[in-house]
Design a protein that fits this description.
This protein is of the alpha/beta class and 268 residues long. The chain has helices at residues 23-33, 45-59, 74-88, 113-141, 162-182, 200-204, 207-215, 225-236, 261-265; strands at 8-12, 16-17, 20-21, 37-42, 64-68, 93-96, 144-149, 187-194, 247-250. The protein has a single domain (8-265), classed as Rossmann fold (3-Layer(aba) Sandwich), CATH 3.40.50. One of its GO terms (molecular function) is oxidoreductase activity.
Length: 268
């Protein structure tokens, strides 16, 4: 487990959904368990409050708080950073995790511009805005760690999720630009790229969907949100001080093999 004592973190897209933590909720859980104090932010206020209540009950009062936040709006982001500083005194870590992948995000020729714009607003602009407004607090201290959640969809095409894939490629670009521009001033910025993860959204999907991704994953099981969370916590911690501007796939080996891997296994 990463050592995060005395650290203060903001985690976006963190909630309990249908009784289970999403990836952001798992990140918040891992950070709090590692000793950090955490502000969770989600547009789903009930889900964020449920996560805060659960972790507060387990780890004690004063280690976690929540803020209802629409990360598409700069005003909401400013209020989030201000609330974090007011509650915990500073910001050491930002986990830009919030993201959307709507069903209407289809093929290029069928894509409504409103869907494209909203995906970009949440997945890219939200990450940029929180980075922008957390940076002054971090720069004043001369240190800070930002971990962006991208996706394996940033590396390879799909029959749908055009906006999602393009947005996550943009998140990876934002990562290296942030690291390059602020690394000499003590700021690290890295990204993790999950593959299909057994989040509540994926568990709602048809079984054949999960079986398809499992068939193409090297690991025996799909990653759980906690598997992604441990990678985020490591990159956020001082143990990863030597890592900056890196894009790390946390996909169970989904993109590590030849395209015909799953077909070859049928002959084993």
């Amino acid at each position: 487990m990463a050592e995060m004592s005395e650290k203060v973190a903001i985690v976006t897209g963190a909630a309990i959904v249908e009784g289970k933590v999403n990836i952001g909720g798992a990140i918040a859980t891992e950070l709090v368990a590692s000793g950090a104090r955490v502000m969770v932010a989600d547009i789903d206020g009930d889900g964020a409050n449920a996560l805060t209540a659960e972790l507060g009950g387990k780890f004690g009062e004063g280690v976690i708080a929540s803020q209802v936040t629409d990360i598409r709006g700069e005003g909401d982001i400013e209020r989030l950073v201000a609330a974090t500083v007011e509650a915990f005194g500073t910001v050491d870590v930002v986990a830009n995790n919030a993201g959307v992948f709507p069903e209407r995000d289809g093929a290029v020729g069928d894509l409504d511009i409103e869907v494209w714009d909203d995906v970009m607003a949440v997945n890219v602009r939200g990450a940029m805005l929180l980075t922008k407004h957390a940076l002054p607090v971090m720069l004043e201290k001369g240190r800070g760690s930002i971990v962006n959640t991208a996706s394996t969809h940033a590396f390879a095409g799909d029959l749908s999720l055009t906006g999602y894939g393009a947005s996550k490629a943009a998140v990876n670009a934002l990562t290296v630009y942030t690291a390059t521009q602020y690394g000499r001033r003590g700021i690290r910025c890295n990204s993790v790229c999950p593959g299909t993860t057994t989040s509540p959204a994926v568990e709602r999907a048809p079984e054949r969907f999960r079986e398809l991704y499992q068939r193409h994953t090297i690991n025996p099981e799909l990653n759980a949100p906690a598997d992604v969370a441990r990678a985020v916590a490591f990159l956020a911690s001082d143990a990863a001080n030597g890592i900056n501007g890196m894009v790390v796939r946390v996909d169970g080996g989904l993109l590590a093999h030849q395209p015909f891997f799953a077909d070859q296994r049928e002959f084993d």
